Amino acid sequence: MGRSVDAVLFDIDETLIDLQAAMGSTLQAVGADDLTHFTAADWEAYTSLFAADPQGHYDAYLSGRLGFADQRVLRLQHARERAGLAPLDSDAARAWNEAYEAALPRYFRAFDDVVPLLDALEARGIAYGAVSNNVHDYQRAKLDAAGLQRIKVLVGIDTVGAAKPEPAIFHEGVRLLGSERERTAYVGDNLTVDGVGAADAGLLGVWLDRTDNPSPVRGDGAAAPSGVHTIGSLGELLELV
Predict the structure, then answer these.
(1) What is the 3-state secondary structure (H, E, C) of 146-215?
(2) Distance of CA 161 to the CA centre of its chain
(3) Whole-prediction pTM value?
(4) N or C: which end of the chain has fewer CB within 10 A?
(5) What percent of the chain has pLDDT over 90?
(6) What is the domain partition of the chain in residue ranges?
């Protein structure tokens, strides 16, 4: 790799925590009566569309054009439309969102390769933390629910008033770890926002393109540009640090 790394920052959703699986379980748990006919394949397509958010509603939330609950409901309405279902009215959508928000934390789980990697980083004396495109307290609760209380350093979009791929949010993570940009790796599942964004901010950008569980935001035919490393699992990160 040609340079030493003494700190690692991680994305959270689809990097440390299997959010798509949690979404799928929650969608089924709070599914309306008109979804009882869904087959396993129907649920997979429905969940994948909801998670991928091809209409960019989550980006609209990040830019301040939508509220958090609003973006979630719009993603649901799009998934319902594509499944041939009628949209929920405002009261039903509000009730659905409340039920979804209450159920989702029960399904947060860390990927199997997370704890072994954190153990290995600690054994090597490499500091670690997380930088996420969501607000700090929401992601703090998510990490804790998934058993990742050991991740103490966490930067959210409300911490510095910036979202990835803006450099400021990466730089705050580096500062909190007491590292230097050029000696800090950033690992995430979104090639553009995480891998390229971190590299542009002066960190070592690492794209996690999970071999057995591709990210819903991966994109077809994606390939990392020069200067961004690609790994198929978190265990492969040890070869870089």
Answers:
(1) CCCCCCCEEECHHHHCCCCCCHHHHHHHHHHHCCCHHHEEEEECCHHHHHHHHHHCCCEEEEECCCCCCC
(2) 18
(3) 0.91
(4) N
(5) 87
(6) 7-18+109-239, 19-107
